[in-house]
Amino acid sequence: AFMSDHFGNFVAANNCIVRFLAISPEFIERRMRLRSTNPAALNYMNVICSLDSGYRTTLGHDWSANVLRNMLFFRRITFRYRPRPYFQQLWQALMKNREFKRFWNESSYRDSVEQASDSDLEVYAYHHTRFDEDVQYIAAVSQIVTPDGERYLTTYIPANKRVAQLFEQSAEEGGEGWITFS
Fold it and tell me: Concatenated DSSP letters for the chain?
């Protein structure tokens, strides 16, 4: 699982999913050092679109469809917060990422509204490059209202016994703890 805020910034992630998605500890450490000067350093859209995160290569050819689904979700959750000064800073930083800019331009708010009912529950089925196996799992998003805005908890649920074993292997390799980004 991982949690993000209403700007799409990571709040916390468990080591299992970070490891499963092939996001290296070094990448996270670099991004944590950058966040004081770059508001998009730990934004999930920036991580997804970054060439050096590892996430892109894990999904292989399915990466583009995944980015577009995530972009539509990002558009929806940030819509009412876009006038805020922080979002303007975040926006400028995100637009420096060529892939983010491309997918922002390829998506539209209308698409986001039309697909909103589908974006809180996604089925992922692809050939996982690290494990060299076909995987299938479900990502379920829960919205949590807090005094300072929404939080979004994304829980990954294996769709079969083999994927559950791969999740377990990732937990063993990366540890069962959580990374907090605050």
Answer: -EEEETTSBEEEEEHHHHHHTT--HHHHHHHHHHTTT-TTTTBHHHHHH-TTSSHHHHHGGGHHHHHHHHHHHHHHHHGGGTTSHHHHHHHHHHTTSHHHHHHHHH--HHHHHHHTTTTTEEEEEEEETTTTEEEEEEEEEEEEEETTEEEEEEEEEESSHHHHHHHHHHHHHH-S-EEE--
